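Why does this matter for the project? Reviewers at the last site visit asked to see concrete outputs rather than summary tables. In response, this paragraph embeds two records directly. Each consists of the residue sequence and, immediately after it, the corresponding structure tokens. Nothing has been edited or filtered.
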Amino acid sequence: MKTPHTALATAALLALSFTSAQAASWRTCEGAALKWNGNRADMFISTTSFPANSTWDSAMQNAMWHWNNVKGAGFNFFVGRDTDGSSSPDNGRNEIYFNASQTGTALAVTRTRYHCYWLFGWQRGIDETDIAFNTSLGWNTSAVNYANLGSPFHFESVALHELGHALGLLHSDGVMATMNSFYPNGGSLGQFKEIDPLPDDRLGVRSLYPDGTTETDIAGSAFRRTGSGTSGLVSSPASAARGSTISIGVSVANLGTSTRSFNIGFYLSGDSFISTGDRLLGTNTGASVSSGGVLTFTRSLTIPSNVAPGTYTLGFIVDNNGAVAEANEGNNGQSMPRTITIF
């Protein structure tokens, strides 16, 4: 008989960190995944840190909902209230709170206690997880701001990342992912800037907690992977002459459970919202992305010579002809992170 073993692991999210590249991963015990044996975790949100019904509380619950809503995975977070203002990494209670002393220089820290031992068969599983956000840093609960991807840090983005640790995922620094340890992680989706687990993360939770359900969802993004794993914005010009050729960056994420092919339309809009009613500048036909994949490329476009001088928005719409029936049609359109002045 082997000696029973329990452990406490810490995952910290930093504003800047350097780790080895890897795709979706998790801890293992004798070759099997370490996860919640009941396929659920009851998370007790501190009402001292995040008052009930506040924007902070809503952002945290929204992040939980997005993990729960991943089809192909049978895992669920459930919301509880922690009203006593105290916390401990070994009290048998999964707690979420603000605390500067437990986070150091990290944006947030998730501590996970698990067991892995032999007792008439291998006994394994996650026992407790606690998430501490660094209260000494600046935070915001508004929409992602493309013009400022630093402090104040986007709370829901970090919450989604830390909850990924809470359900059992490790960092994925080799891909554009929610579990990328480089803030702002993998970024948002669509021109409404939705904070949703990205394809690699969805593969991870589906591998840990498979349930056989399916979904179809493809989305645009203003983010792309850069460097050794960081996430940055796609490129687009700040200005261009009428009749000139420009280049814009494109990222398309397949959030679904199977490979999808689709068209992509590229548009010029007189306002900040990209729609099929805007001026069509070009189309890519038959693009294809496998489940768990992100397609990133650069597209050349010509600015029409008869466009009036002024400030416009460039962007694209995934499946602009509506050929693919999706669970979420609202994340297909994507505007460029900055406007373009045409002269």
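We now turn to the second protein, recorded in exactly the same manner.
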Amino acid sequence: MRTFPPRAAAFEVLLPRNGFGPRLAGRAGDVWRAMQDVVADHSDSVGWTPERFVAAGTMFVVRTMTVEHVREVHINEPLTGRTWPSRARRQMLFTRQVRLFSGHELVATASQEWAYLSREVQATRAGKELFDAYTIDEGYPEVSVPRAEVAPDAPVRRFSFTVWHGWMDSNGHANHTAYVDYCDEGVARIVAAEGGDAQALVPVKETVHFRAAVGAGDEVTVETTEAAPQDDARVFSHRILVAGKVCATATLVRRPLR
């Protein structure tokens, strides 16, 4: 079955050197960043550059993103990304699909839910000029992660940090891809505390639902709870909080390196 529409444009992408750990395998968060580059390249290609969004006083913000890793990405491995909008609702909410390939081999796939907002973070409708710039292709499978089943008495592990000013993205908040790094750090700390190798974890799937932005100077707390395993993989449920407010929830599926 074809995994992308025939008219979906192709964009070349390469994970940066700092996107790889000691095993020279791409980190999940940096696979997310590669996908974000593909989405940005697609937007640029239809005339909607970051500068144009700023001039229009609007922005797209991710509400939910779900990724499945078919396999890990190797260092210096050239990738090709394909992306297209697959659904629109009231010209305010948009679903987008992303696929990453190495040659003809599919290595990662994602489904994203985006909201179109003003710079004052108010929902707004995409005008005809923007809406008509993108072609919606329906009928392609979306990525999903099974619900994490967490026992009521499962221990919750926490760590906190202060968000740097230098981490802000073009919309003035922590980019959605960083939340995967936060959650993976929570998982790594659990594995390390068990005496395991925190670098020997292979990303399988993850989903993050975003509720509120994280800004510079915020004190962030990451809560991680292990859920029931799925096949040979461990499943972790996360909450990302600022001053007690839940800014995001996430589920990560990770398996030990075979």
